[in-house]
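Changelog-adjacent note: as of this version, every example in the card shows the full chain rather than a window. The one below runs 127 residues end to end.
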Amino acid sequence: QVQLVESGGGLVQAGGSLTLSCAASGRYLNTYALGWFRQAPGKEREFVASITRSGGTTYYAAPVKGRFTISRDNAKNTVYLQMNLLKPEETAGYYCAATDNVLTATAMKNERKYGYWGQGTQVSVSE
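Full-length structure tokens:
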């Protein structure tokens, strides 16, 4: 079983950047596909980005494509989410998730396919 711990959240002005990290322990990360999801107050959790075990394929939600980059360093057991040009409406708790299942491209965007979750890190974007 893998444990996930996110870090890197904080307060940033609109147009700014943040890099989130998700460190894994308990199992080698290279056996898991990984995703980032976010949940704003009063809203449902939504997909942000995901990456396959090898890191060879990435998926992004349409609103973040071109601004966010997901990457992983299996040697460091860590996955990252680089976020640029942040918008106030992207204020949310950001969550890292892992799955040891082999998923289709569609399933990689489905939070229900991920069995392991971190506690989240808060990102606040001011006007």
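Structural remarks: The CA atoms of residues 17 and 84 lie 4 Å apart.
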